[in-house]
């Protein structure tokens, strides 16, 4: 495999002997002292890197360095902090292609989607730079004469970021770019499956740090570790905020540990996303949206479409269109032009998909197409599958689960109220969509009686959100919101200030205490 892009990014500066560093910031590039860990490419199973994982002691030392950096950074004016983020964004633009290649190598995403992920990082930089001149609080009317009330937003502290393999750069950027302009230090534990993506990001950050001596060098750091490091971060009181993205199982564990010390957690967990296709839908538009949302990233997006709830009068026609579209999908090496579906991340993911299909069939599901492993015309050693559609009843138990693979469950409904109920009747609440030309149906779907998800779309698929909106979901998706809108408030602490500029001391609520 041609890996020149790793050299172009300067990743070899983190290689000591044969092992990559596991603790990296602007001041440190240390090997880990824990167990040996190898990274593998989903493309062909080839080993891509070898590490010793970081230990809790190494995390502890980095946490101290990050606190020192935070103490300096929090007094740097926010617009100056924004200049650092702007420079990071410029460098991400410059190295966009190489960065995307690292994503494809480690996460198996097709190159256009990997380029889109880097673009998301670049866009978040632009957004954060603008925010660095905002971060505004309110002025509030005081009930007392000669008094003024206002609120200020102050930097929070070092923020622990734990992330999943499937968005190995974008999720970090949502947290880090906003956290940095908000005045925080960022300590990142990426997925063990995508360590080179994290080191690639740190090379970009370190380049910006080299050019900007006023920025504390430990303000951004990476710790390559396993779940034990994530747990240590979750229990550590020095992190006022733990932002964790991944499975609901992981989020429950992190949420409990952070909650036990009354810290803040920002959880972005699994989805079980649905699209209602009404009898009033433009079926061709719906078809295009379904295919991208269900098979894009080989079904490995938190917002991947898992369930289509089609009106009984259009279900059969839609099924036929979908089967036809699935037959022409190009599955294979994600680096090749025109390929639309790359590999699953690993063998476990493949086994999980097969188990889910087995359960679906046992529960009365009928496979309409796909599901099998593909071994012809694909790199050997990778787990390539044909995206699958299963016709199933809405009350089948398997439909309640998120299986992180390209399985689409197709079910039918009679009334719009019933469709909304089916859609909401799962433990997760991330992304949802309706395809309809009926204004009434669309408005009902968006109303308080409608979708209970964090993202609810009309005539747009469930995946591919823009960075300007707040991203996240309800129920077992964790309730967190990242990226746009006012998500920046997660990374700051609010201080309500009352100032008495008069000569008396009136008490609130008219209390007389004399
Ligand atoms: P995962 O839960 O296996 O791992 C995610 C991260 O959590 C990794 O860094 C892992 O090392 C760490 N971790 C695991 N157990 C932990 C624990 N007990 N304490 C602390 N850290 C722990 O998830 P994955 O397989 O990498 O990613 C797929 C999952 O992520 C899917 O469920 C997907 O829906 C979800 N996801 C959600 C979003 C979102 O924004 N809602 C975005 C991307 C992925």
TrEMBL record:
<dbReference type="Pfam" id="PF00171">
    <property type="entry name" value="Aldedh"/>
</dbReference>
<dbReference type="InterPro" id="IPR016163">
    <property type="entry name" value="Ald_DH_C"/>
</dbReference>
<dbReference type="InterPro" id="IPR016161">
    <property type="entry name" value="Ald_DH/histidinol_DH"/>
</dbReference>
<dbReference type="InterPro" id="IPR015590">
    <property type="entry name" value="Aldehyde_DH_dom"/>
</dbReference>
<feature type="active site">
    <location>
        <position position="268"/>
    </location>
</feature>
<feature type="domain" description="Aldehyde dehydrogenase">
    <location>
        <begin position="38"/>
        <end position="494"/>
    </location>
</feature>
<dbReference type="InterPro" id="IPR044638">
    <property type="entry name" value="ALDH7A1-like"/>
</dbReference>
<comment type="similarity">
    <text>Belongs to the aldehyde dehydrogenase family.</text>
</comment>
<keyword id="KW-0560">Oxidoreductase</keyword>
<comment type="subunit">
    <text>Homotetramer.</text>
</comment>
<protein>
    <recommendedName>
        <fullName>aldehyde dehydrogenase (NAD(+))</fullName>
        <ecNumber>1.2.1.3</ecNumber>
    </recommendedName>
</protein>
<dbReference type="InterPro" id="IPR016162">
    <property type="entry name" value="Ald_DH_N"/>
</dbReference>
<keyword id="KW-0520">NAD</keyword>
<dbReference type="InterPro" id="IPR029510">
    <property type="entry name" value="Ald_DH_CS_GLU"/>
</dbReference>
């Amino acid at each position: 495999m041609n890996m020149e892009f790793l050299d172009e990014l300067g990743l070899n500066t983190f290689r000591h002997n044969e092992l990559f560093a596991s603790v990296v910031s602007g001041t440190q590039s240390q090997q880990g002292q824990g167990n040996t860990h190898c990274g593998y490419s989903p493309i062909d199973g080839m080993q891509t890197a070898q590490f010793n994982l970081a230990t809790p002691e190494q995390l502890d030392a980095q946490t101290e360095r990050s606190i020192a950096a935070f103490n300096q950074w929090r007094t740097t004016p926010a617009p100056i902090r924004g200049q650092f983020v702007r420079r990071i964004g410029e460098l991400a633009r410059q190295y966009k292609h190489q960065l995307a290649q690292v994503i494809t190598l480690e996460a198996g995403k097709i190159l256009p989607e990997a380029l889109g992920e880097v673009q998301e990082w670049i866009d978040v930089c632009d957004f954060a730079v603008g925010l660095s001149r905002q971060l505004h609080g309110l002025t509030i009317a005081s009930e007392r004469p000669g008094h003024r009330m206002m609120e200020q937003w102050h930097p929070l502290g070092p923020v622990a970021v734990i992330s999943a393999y499937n968005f190995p750069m974008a999720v970090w950027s949502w947290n880090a770019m906003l956290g940095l302009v908000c005045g925080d230090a960022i300590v990142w534990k990426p997925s063990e499956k995508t360590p080179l993506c994290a080191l690639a990001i740190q090379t970009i950050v370190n380049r910006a740090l080299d050019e900007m001596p006023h920025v504390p060098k430990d303000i951004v750091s990476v710790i390559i570790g396993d779940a034990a490091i994530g747990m240590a971060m979750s229990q550590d009181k020095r992190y006022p905020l733990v932002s964790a993205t991944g499975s609901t199982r992981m989020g429950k564990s992190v949420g409990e540990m952070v909650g036990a010390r009354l810290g803040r957690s920002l959880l972005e967990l699994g989805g079980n996303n649905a699209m209602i296709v009404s009898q009033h839908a433009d079926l061709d538009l719906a078809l295009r949206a379904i295919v991208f949302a269900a098979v894009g990233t080989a079904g490995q997006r938190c917002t991947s479409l898992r369930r289509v709830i089609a009106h009984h009068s259009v279900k059969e026609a839609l099924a036929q269109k979908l089967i036809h579209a699935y037959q022409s999908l190009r599955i294979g090496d994600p680096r090749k032009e025109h390929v639309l579906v790359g590999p699953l991340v690993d063998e476990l993911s493949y086994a999980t998909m097969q188990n889910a299909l087995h359960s679906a069939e046992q529960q009365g599901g009928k496979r309409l197409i796909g599901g099998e492993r593909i071994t012809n015309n694909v790199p050997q050693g990778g787990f390539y599958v044909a995206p699958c559609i299963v016709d199933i009843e809405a009350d089948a138990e398997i439909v309640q689960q998120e299986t992180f693979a390209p399985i689409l469950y197709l079910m039918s409904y009679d009334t719009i109220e019933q469709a909304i109920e089916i859609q909401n009747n799962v433990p997760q609440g991330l992304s949802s969509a309706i395809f309809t030309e009926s204004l009434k149906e669309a408005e009902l779907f968006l109303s308080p009686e409608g979708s209970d998800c964090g993202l609810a779309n009309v005539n747009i698929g469930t995946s591919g959100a823009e960075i300007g909106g707040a991203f996240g979901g309800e129920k077992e998706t964790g309730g967190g919101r990242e990226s746009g809108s006012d998500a920046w408030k997660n990374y700051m602490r609010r201080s309500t200030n009352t100032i008495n500029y008069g000569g008396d001391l009136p008490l609130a609520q008219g209390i007389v205490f004399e």
